[in-house]
């Protein structure tokens, strides 16, 4: 029987995850992204990229 050793959490991963989660929350504030009005994947991706650029510029 093996005993598992508890490893220390890697905090840099959690920092990056927090940044991504906040970005997704900001994206969802835009109605078109939250409800996904666009029918095509390419149009939806373009909208996400455009809004991400706007968020990044602020």
TrEMBL record:
It comes from the Bacteria. Residues 11-55 form the Transposase DDE domain. It holds the Pfam family DDE_Tnp_1_2. InterPro entries: Tnp_DDE_dom. This is Transposase.
């Amino acid at each position: 029987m093996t005993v598992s050793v508890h490893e220390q959490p890697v905090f840099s991963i959690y920092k990056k995850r927090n940044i991504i989660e906040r970005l997704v929350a900001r994206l969802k504030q835009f109605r078109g992204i939250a409800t996904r009005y666009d029918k095509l994947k390419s149009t939806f991706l373009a909208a996400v990229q455009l809004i991400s650029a706007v968020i990044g510029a602020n």
